[in-house]
Design brief:
The structure holds two protein chains of two kinds. Chain A is of the alpha+beta class. Chain A is 22% helix and 33% strand. Helices cover 18% and strands 32% of the residues of chain B. Classes of the chains: A alpha+beta, B alpha+beta. Strand 2 of chain A pairs antiparallel with strand 3 of chain B.
């Protein structure tokens, strides 16, 4: 059974295709990777051990793809003001987010736009996440259902 | 070595219940840097129409990745986990995961293929409550880089 529609100020009728969502900029540092490993249970060594990352053919430690996916979701959930509105969310991990062992870490820039208004009060939002010049997610799409 | 395609279509029944804890949701929300009170405060969650605090959209991976290990770490599959990266992820949500849920997941191997020298395995975990209410389905595609031993661009190295 689907729970009741979320009570949110953002209504389907107020949404226009092509609308750009407010951008998110955030930094991911080594400590964030350790914290995410603990919270998620994903202790793959390539996310915290340079030696293991290089042995696996990577230039350095990389962020969990799922951490990037989680950070990117917030551009949509902040916009609709109720994360329970998200009924579908899909990404391809196109490039790794390389996280150097320094104060700056890696900077992620998340942008998104309303791609299409669908039937049944659904809206598709397309998301882009960049780390420097790299597009680290591709085909990142969320579908929300709005009142 | 290519993965064994005999695994395609294989299903692994639910093995254990995962009980979703309020503090686990908070811990996860902290780890992804999302301060939304609907992940932390029951009153906020109820005002938004939920029975209890809900979990962030990607939280189900905490449950489904562990369930996926049944096939990923199966030695008969032949996957070299040291070469594995996450290729794709998709969630299709019936309702948000919330604190107090007692969830089970049924794992299915949707596809196995080799492409450009990589091994690709696609799995699906259908998550429901232990009473059978559908909650979310997680589709994952993992890539083992350079392990399939086929499709090198230089035939002399094949």
């Amino acid at each position: 059974m689907v729970s009741a529609l979320p009570t949110t100020a953002l209504a389907y009728d107020s949404v226009a295709e092509g609308t750009e969502l407010p951008e998110i900029q955030t930094r991911v540092r080594r400590a964030d990777l350790v914290r995410y490993s603990g919270a998620s249970g994903d202790f793959n060594v390539i996310h915290w051990n340079e030696r293991a990352a290089r042995a696996a053919g990577l230039p350095d430690v990389i962020a969990h793809g799922m951490l990037t996916m989680a950070i990117a979701a917030r551009i949509v959930t902040d916009w609709v003001r109720n994360p329970g509105a998200m009924v579908e969310y899909a990404v391809r991990f196109s490039r790794p987010v390389i996280v150097p062992d320094d104060e700056d870490g890696a900077e992620l820039v998340v942008s998104a736009r309303v791609a299409k208004k669908l039937p049944d009060h659904r809206v598709r939002v397309d998301i882009i996440v960049r780390c420097g010049a790299d597009k680290v997610l591709s085909m990142a799409r969320a579908v929300v259902v709005l009142p | 070595m290519p993965l064994d395609p005999a695994f395609i279509g294989r299903t692994y029944p639910a093995v254990e219940v995962y009980e979703v804890g309020r503090e686990k949701i908070r811990e996860f929300a902290d780890a992804i840097g999302d301060p939304n009170p609907v992940y932390r405060d029951r009153g906020t969650a109820r005002a938004a129409g939920h029975q209890d605090v809900i979990a962030p959209p990607t939280f189900p991976i905490v449950i489904t990745a562990r369930i996926g290990e049944q096939v990923i770490f199966d030695p008969e599959l032949g996957l070299d986990y040291t070469k594995v990266v996450h290729g794709q992820q998709r969630f299709v949500v019936t309702r948000p995961v919330r604190a107090g849920d007692r969830l089970i997941g049924v794992l299915t191997v949707d596809n196995i293929q080799a492409a450009a020298g990589n091994d690709l395995i696609s799995t699906r975990v259908d998550v429901s409550t232990e009473d059978g209410e559908p909650v979310v389905t997680a589709y994952s595609m993992l890539v083992a880089r350079g392990t399939s031993g086929v499709a090198t661009s230089d035939p002399s190295k094949a």
